[in-house]
Specification:
EC 6.2.1.1, nine-stranded mixed beta sheet, acetate--CoA ligase, five-stranded parallel beta sheet, alpha/beta, 571 residues, binds ligand 6R9, 30% helix
């Protein structure tokens, strides 16, 4: 497609506009919008919820507009404030203290959000887990974080290996009809008794708020640790990039088990005091259009994988809905195909604004502001207060149009502050004062960044980050599998699909039912999105002499590309 530039509606000259924001920019100015700037008392739960609940003009505004196939509910800022005071009281009653890790493993529901803020209000650290995780994924995360409490539902409890988690002292069950045993805390009974007043635990801006586990190319998922100070950037990017105005109805489609679902599904909208639509249930183009239509959504933050499905669903479908309230659309998670931008211009008469960031960065870094000209295929330009560059492997800046490591100058407000219990891993992200992202990209002469791919073996399937090691480890737990190597294989709809190469143990014969059994084994042991869509049997898996799986070589074979340097290949 030709790289036609898509001009901003306002007709403002984009570069000048962004440059003028950048000039003399100081994060200190942004901080003045927070109440802690005056009071010195910090807690992100206060800024996001209680501050609005104390404001007579805001308290009765709907904060959370919940819509699921079987349940609809509106919760005002005042109600959410009181409900999270109640959950905070429950946590406190059961001994949760500042700094403890409390994990949430439950579907999106009003109770999820009340508990999330309750955790913050007692000064504890929240760890949201994606509801599709199976036992292994749940165990790894609870074990590594040494979580003291888990808040879950009876349906999901079966995936929690309770007896193997010595640090896990309490389990709260939400929606239990009959409690399985008295070792569990009955949320529904407790909430009836709990006071809706609570003295919030004031924290330091550098105190822990959140842990998100994310995949790298080696080892188990790592706990990315974020602090309350991240709210500064959640708020600012919400205002500049998402363009929040007081009366917006906003819908972020991401689950809070992923970073987009917390930074932009919780903090950005509520720090900016807007009505936040939360949708439960599964994705279908019909149900998502219905959510936009029924709730009169004005701003929509979603992902290319969903947008591509809308494109495939066709133009006739979209005409059945009234989407006239929609005024601003944004995307994250994967490269945004220029075709999708063209489609949105045609069917919604709206541009899609791509944003680039990562679990580790905590908030958006490279974006398309509403006032900017969009160059389809580019992720946009860095926000004010952030310096991005393309660097070589030693951390030296490269000139425009040269491909290299996409890097950010260390020290933006929402940057992760640690990898949980893994200082070596944390340090490894930084070279010569730059945070090196693992993405390859180039920058054009006007400072727009163009994504090229991952530099490591991390897989991005339907916008979800999957570490090959995690899948390989699960595969070799299956009795038939001797060795496994896992790669991402390009796919037009999902970005990448997971492909596994395996060798079989003696006595096992390759056939379709065995392969399906192995696939199911990963699906039910780890999670559906981590299960390989394709499995191929090999006589051996290529490894380096030091025993590392050469995934790059597997990928070259798969794609029929030149195999490059194989000098380290084992005989
Ligand atoms: C927020 C989030 C991060 C990885 C990142 C990159 C890919 C994210 C993108 C994008 C192309 C974009 N990614 N945004 N690729 N264009 N606009 O997605 O966090 O789950 O940690 O994934 O996703 O490869 O490094 P996370």
């Amino acid at each position: 497609m030709d790289m036609t530039k898509v001009q901003a509606r306002s007709g403002k000259h984009n570069l000048a506009d962004l440059e003028s924001m950048r000039e003399g920019f100081d994060w200190e100015e942004v901080k003045k919008d927070f109440s802690w700037y005056k009071t010195g008392k910090v807690n992100a739960a206060y800024e996001a919820i209680d501050r609005h609940a104390e404001n007579p003009d805001k308290k009765d505004q709907v904060a959370l507009l919940y819509s699921a196939p079987d349940r609809e509910e509106s919760v005002t800022f005042q109600q959410l404030s009181k409900q999270s005071n109640q959950t905070a009281n429950i946590l406190k009653k059961y001994g949760i203290q500042k700094g403890d890790r409390v994990f949430l493993f439950m579907p999106r529901s009003p109770e999820f959000y009340a508990n999330f803020f309750g955790i913050l209000k007692v000064g504890a650290i929240a760890g949201p887990l994606f509801e599709a995780f199976m036992e292994q994924a749940v165990r790894d995360r609870l074990e590594d974080s040494e979580a003291a409490m888990l808040i879950t539902t009876p349906d999901l409890l079966g995936r929690v290996p309770v007896d193997e988690l010595p640090h896990l002292k309490q389990i709260v069950l939400v929606g239990a009809e009959n409690l399985p045993e008295d070792d569990y805390i009955d949320y529904d009974a407790e909430i009836k008794e709990a006071s809706d007043e609570f003295d919030i635990e004031w924290v330091d801006r550098e105190d822990g708020m959140l842990i998100h586990y994310t995949s790298g190319s080696t080892g188990k998922p790592k706990g990315v640790y974020h602090v309350h100070n991240a709210m500064v950037q959640h708020y600012a990017t919400g205002k500049w990039v998402i363009d929040f105005k007081e009366d917006d109805v906003y819908w972020c489609t991401a689950d809070p088990g992923w970073v987009t679902g917390t930074s932009y599904g919780i903090f950005a909208p509520w720090l900016n005091g807007v009505t936040n639509v939360i949708r439960g249930g599964r994705f279908t183009p019909e149900s998502w259009y219905e959510t936009l239509d029924k709730n009169n959504v004005t701003i929509w933050y979603t992902a290319p994988t969903a947008l591509r499905k809308f494109v495939s669903a066709g133009d006739e479908l979209v005409k059945q809905y009234d989407l006239s309230s929609l005024r601003h659309v944004l995307s994250v998670g994967e490269p945004l195909n220029p075709e999708v931008i063209t489609w949105a211009l045609r069917v919604f008469d709206l541009r899609i604004h791509d944003t680039w960031w990562m679990t580790e960065t905590g908030a958006m870094l490279i974006v398309n502001l509403p006032s900017m000209e969009i160059r389809p295929g580019s992720m946009g330009r860095p926000i004010p207060g952030v310096e991005a560059a393309i660097v070589d492997n030693e951390g030296n800046e490269l000139p425009p149009n040269q491909m290299g490591n996409l890097a950010i100058k260390k020290g933006w407000p929402s940057m992760m502050r640690a990898i949980w219990k893994n200082p070596g891993k944390y340090e490894s992200y930084f070279i010569n004062g730059w945070y090196v992202s693992g993405d390859s990209a180039y920058m054009d002469e006007d400072g727009y960044f163009w994504f090229q791919g991952r530099l490591d073996d991390v897989i991005n399937t339907s916008g979800e980050r999957v570490g090959p090691f995690e899948v390989e480890s699960k595969l070799i737990e299956h009795k038939a599998v001797a060795e496994a190597g896992v790669i991402g294989k390009p796919d037009p709809e999902r970005g990448e699909i997971i492909k596994a190469f395996i060798t079989l143990n003696p006595g096992y014969e390759a056939n379709d039912s065995l392969l399906e059994e192995i696939r199911q084994f990963v699906k039910t042991g780890l999670s559906a999105h981590a299960a390989p869509r394709e499995i191929e049997i090999k006589d051996s898996i290529p490894k380096t002499r030091s025993g590392k799986i050469m995934r790059r070589l597997l990928k070259s074979w798969e794609l029929g590309l030149p195999t490059g340097d194989t000098s380290t290949l084992e005989e």
